[in-house]
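Q: Structure tokens for this one, please.
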Amino acid sequence: MLSLSWQMGQRDAGIDERVLDHLQPHTSLAKLKISGYSGSRSLCWMENPILTNVTYISLSDCHQLQYLPPLGRLASLKYLYLRNMNTVKTINSSFYGCQNPFGFPSLKLLHIEGFPALDEWVEPENRNLFPQLEVLVIQLCKSLRNVPALPSTLAYFKLYDVGLTTIPATYCCTETTQQPKSSHFKLIISHCPNLVMLEPNYCFEGLEELLVEDCKNLMHLPMVQLQKLPSVKTFLLVKCPNLIAPEAEISLPTSIRHLYIDSCGGYETSLLKSLCSLTSLTALKLGNCVTVTPQRDISLPSSIENLYMDSCGVGDTSLPNSFCSQTSLTSLQLYDCLMTALPSAEVFKNLATMQHLEIVNCSKLATLDGIEELTNLRELNVNGCDMLDKQHTEASDLRQAAAVCPSQLAKLEKLRISSPFLLQHRPLRGVKSVTHLTIDKSHRCLPEGWLMQNRNHLNCLAVRNASHLVFLPSIIAGLTSLKTLEILNAVLLQSLPELPASLERLLIIECHPVLGRRCQKRIGCDWHRIARIRDVKIDHRPSGYSSSSYMGYFPFFHWNTLR
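A: Here is the predicted structure, written as tokens:
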């Protein structure tokens, strides 16, 4: 590989051009990277077919370059990355070269990013410019109005922050120029504010994933064509508020396994009505779907394993109705729902496969009754439920003896709660199996009785905001399985008790300065309590650290591909 790089700053463009003209590479070169070149023209040796063996080229931060070099002349080129070129306004026909075949005969990947002035991409008539292209990524090209027809070989196409009003068509091959079609295709369209419609003039028969996000002016989807595609497994439709629902009833492809609907205007009602027919659906995420109300519940297929509802207006009656047939449900996440109670114990008893439950920011929820019937539950997160937090507020509750009656949640291992007072609610009071406990905001003391009844299993205890915590109780030494203790924002904590012999990691961040001095190596009066611990960090200074001992997130969809 040959890599040529310049630091950003004021330079003589003519010098850069002359320097590179005289650095003509060897004809056997396979990979070339150029970054920070300040010349306004392409290199003279790029206009001569000497790079016959180059398969990889990356050009970046060439901010004065007016036109792209004629890289179509490089018959062996397979991977091309073009990034951050502020002054290129047009991709014209010279980019494709002039020999026969015309275009990029071997190119498999084309990545174009950061061309703010680019507004036109010239497309010669009746030419398949990229007959072998498999991956096309176009990002941060706000002014770009058109893209050439896409080859049927494409397996991955991503548009992010591009000025198109519609997506490009598929290149129509003649009988004599047939190209193999991709059997697996992923289409991602994100943050394209000018996009109005997805034309039905593309023919990706192998479409498996369609992700459309934050296209605020998108009005139409080709649902008739989409429902005929036999291989669609993932469909995401997020933040497209101006979508107009068609007059005819919508039917989604029955092959869909993952579906995410959030803020999609008139499509909400039609899409939700079609859910019951999706017999392959395993993961459903609904966000800001105002049509999901106690008066208009939804019917869900029994195949669903992961269900996420966020700000959907879900109330007391719609939840039980939705869960009646969920015999496969393993993960349930409820965010900003309006219910005052959870489904009854009888409903939860039918959810024998449930292992993960999150209840977050459900401010009207007043009881956790019912979850005791989730006998296979392994992970539970209850956070931001104000009514629940207010019901037990006496410190004496936290220090009471262990519960007499054991909980039915005998398999619960990971528990995250917003307040230790939640442990006084009946379903959690008798739990004895927790291995990981995370308390988001602590009181002046820890739940001593509850900790002791879990002492044989608890190996990780984390307090994410310990600003009210005054002391650590002496019973900490009796937590014989504890390996990790993490306390953040412990501004009042000034001393340590005896710690369990099993402890391997101790982290106390933003503690009182007195505690920092007491734990100084060899000279602090608490040093003997921590000297044997393998991993210790005690610091009175603020830190950007966040506890990783319990991730209050249960895997659902991996939408990071949108970014």
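A few notes: Residues 413-549 form one domain. The CA atoms of residues 272 and 298 lie 7 Å apart.
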